[in-house]
Amino acid sequence: MKTFWFLVTTIYCALICPALYLKNCLVVALDNGVALTPPMGWMSWLRFECNIRCDIDLDNCISERLYKRIADRMVKDGYLAAGYQYVAIDDCWMSRTRLPNGTLQPDPQRFPSGIKALADYMHLRGLKLGIYLNIGNLTCAGYPGSKNFFDVDARTLADWGIDFVKMDGCNANPADYENDFVAFGNSLISTGRPIVYYCEWPMYARYYGQQVDYSLIAQHCNMFRALTDIYYIYHSIESMIDYISQNPYNMSTYARPGAFNDADALAIGNFGLSESQERMQLGMWAVMSLPLFMSNDLRDIRRSSRTLLQNRHVIAINQDPLGIQGTPIAQYVSVSVWMKRILPLGSSAIAFFNQGRSGGPQVVVFSLSNLPGIDPTATYDVTEVFDDEFLGRFKASQTIRVSVDPMGIYLIKALPAPTT
Fold first, then answer.
1. CA–CA–CA angle 81, 85, 87 (5° rounding)
2. What percent of the chain stands above pLDDT 90?
3. Catalytic residue positions?
4. Contact (Cβ atoms closer than 8 angstroms) between residue 271 and residue 47
């Protein structure tokens, strides 16, 4: 495994990283062989939170019944085929107490079959099961935390067949974050089971005024939350993008196969966002190489949202094997321009995000030659990504015109044209 990661890192640095970032590029991601592209799946928290009232809301409470029904929709309705493979349980799945031997146990009324049986259910359908733990003494909702039980809990997850774990940071001593998040990651590796390790470490470190060491975090976590939880409203999503655009702690340079920044779930298919705003979130998450975790009710979702979430052209930008995080490169009035380098080498995905909140569409006229990394002597095939519409073959010096709706996105990709 270490030989594999050495080869991945060497190739990445040689072909992709500019000299300015060579030191950061040499940081190797967590040595567990998973999350080589941003993980994709479904997570319960944003939509179902800590609803444990199965007595009055059986279809929507945190239970094995809910996760099985979501899994069935993921398979039947095409989400698994589109790349969404993880079904992730969040807080409130546990019993209030551990077993006498210290092992975690699920709530017996809501998960009567146990977690291993639920994992088997997922695996039989080609899906993977994720679960939630907390680094402190209690979870955010007051269930047993993993402090002082790292080896026990890691072994338990492996024995159950868990494929993904979200480690939260509530009810913990901030001074222990570095040691404890690293220690639990080592406990996971010691089990021998490849488990995606999702850390909320940077979010909590920032909250408590600590310096966020992304070099260290990227070595020990596969996903790492940048900021607070996301909500159904446009402002919440825009705030996430604004924060990442500032590139705090040089965070973008540490994104790579096996290590990705995270800005929480896709709010698509819920309440509060227009179709245009839903497109914007998916497109921006794709360009920023963020994990794509839905958090909605797949049993009751708008057709337009379902179609958007399964857009293979946008997903391909997100899942590009280089794993480079796109960054803002220009500003045209209210439109920020983001660029992500993708394969084949010399190609780019370019997002135009209009943060205007009034008026009509913003027209942007630009030439590729003004963008970084573009060969000014080359010719490019340019395609609008969402609808896979070929816009034409352009010399780098030619002007291109795009129109971007307020609070919307226009996403293109530019590939070097074949030489004749």
1. 135
2. 92
3. 168, 229
4. no
Please tell me the distance from the alpha carbon of residue 238 to that of residue 252, in angstroms, as a whole number: 18
Mean pLDDT of the chain: 94
Asked whether 348 and 371 are in contact (CB, 8 A), the reply is: yes
Mean pLDDT of 201-215: 96
| Nearest-angstrom CA–CA distance, 240 and 229 | 9
pLDDT, tens only, 372-415: 999 999 999 999 999 999 999 999 999 999 999 999 999 999 99
113-140 pLDDT tens trace: 999 999 999 999 999 999 999 999 999 9
76-119 pLDDT per residue, tens: 999 999 999 999 999 999 999 999 999 999 999 999 999 999 99
Cα separations in angstroms, 136 against 3, 96, 175, 252, 303: 34, 15, 12, 28, 41
Instruction: Tell me which residue of 204, 267, 209, 208 sits closest to 235, measured CA to CA.
Output: 267
Give the pair of three-digit tokens for residue 157: 């997850």
Q: Quick count: other Cβ atoms within 10 Å of Cβ 331?
A: 10
pTM over 0.90: yes
